[in-house]
Amino acid sequence: MSDSDKVWPTGLTQAESEEIHRNLIQGTQIFGMIAAFAHLLAYIYSPWLK
């Protein structure tokens, strides 16, 4: 019953886990860009460091 392609403990294959990892990294990068843009807009409208 044991499949040698599965990665323990998730039960995903190596390819599936790499795909999830790529999507996680891409989502984190998109979130970071949105957060940086939001901070830029907040600084423009209310400069807290001046």
TrEMBL record:
Name the keywords, alphabetized.
Antenna complex, Bacteriochlorophyll, Cell membrane, Chlorophyll, Chromophore, Light-harvesting polypeptide, Magnesium, Membrane, Metal-binding, Transmembrane, Transmembrane helix
Kindly give the InterPro entries that the UniProt entry links to this protein.
Antenna_a/b (IPR000066), Antenna_beta_CS (IPR023623), Antenna_beta_dom_sf (IPR023624), LHB-1/5 (IPR002362), Light-harvesting_complex (IPR035889)
Task: Record the organism.
Answer: Limnohabitans planktonicus II-D5
Q: Name one GO biological process term.
A: photosynthesis, light reaction
Task of the protein: Antenna complexes are light-harvesting systems, which transfer the excitation energy to the reaction centers.
Recall the GO molecular function terms of this protein's record: bacteriochlorophyll binding; metal ion binding
On whether Glycosyltransferase is a keyword of this UniProt record, the answer is: no
Question: What are the GO cellular component annotations?
Answer: plasma membrane; plasma membrane light-harvesting complex
> Which family, according to the similarity comment?
Belongs to the antenna complex beta subunit family.
What is this protein identified as? Light-harvesting protein
Q: Which Pfam families match?
A: LHC (PF00556)
Transmembrane segments annotated in the record for this chain: 30-48
